[in-house]
Amino acid sequence: MGEVKHLVVAKFKEGVAVEETLQAMAQLVSTMDMVKSFEWGAEMLGEEMLRQGFTHVFIMTFNNGEDLASYLNHPSHTDFIGTFQAALENALVFDFPSVVIKPPA
Amino acid sequence: MGEVKHLVVAKFKEGVAVEETLQAMAQLVSTMDMVKSFEWGAEMLGEEMLRQGFTHVFIMTFNNGEDLASYLNHPSHTDFIGTFQAALENALVFDFPSVVIKPPA
């Protein structure tokens, strides 16, 4: 099995300081060597029906399932989860082994 | 603005031939030069509550929003969407400019 991805699709609560949460997440990841790469984004097309109200996506990549597990179970991550969940109205979490059909050039 | 990602989180209907749909999607993407990269995955941890019933994730990457739009509006894509939607019980679609916090090594 190759790379494993940790996907979080989130809807922030109204009035929450999204930027602060994003900065805290970036800081967390910077201290976690087992996180191979990390990107995020905010919905751009605004098709409310298709995105089901979600506003942000976070994607982390790990070399394998063991690295993902060590991240999920790390005290810094579990501490962060409390703050993160308090800022969210809804979240979808999806972990999957990445099957690459068309690799980046 | 840099790369743009097209994320689809899907739940297939019971009894649907998932492999055939995946093959049709791989074939579609292979003919679409504007799709820079494509990967997919099936949920591995089985935490039903966190994944909200979704079973598969598809992530396509484009160089920019224009390439994404040309893919979404391409007749081969709109044809495929009909078949794809018929196989799905639920789908979440999320388009976003990728903000890379930690680039792949």
TrEMBL record, chains A, B:
PROSITE patterns (UniProt xref): S_R_A_B_BARREL
Pfam families per the UniProt record, alphabetical: Dabb
Record InterPro entries: Dabb (IPR013097), Dimeric_a/b-barrel (IPR011008), HS1/DABB1-like (IPR044662)
Domain Stress-response A/B barrel positions: 4-96
UniProt-listed Gene3D superfamilies: 3.30.70.100
Oligomer status and interactors: Homodimer.
Designated name of the protein: Stress-response A/B barrel domain-containing protein
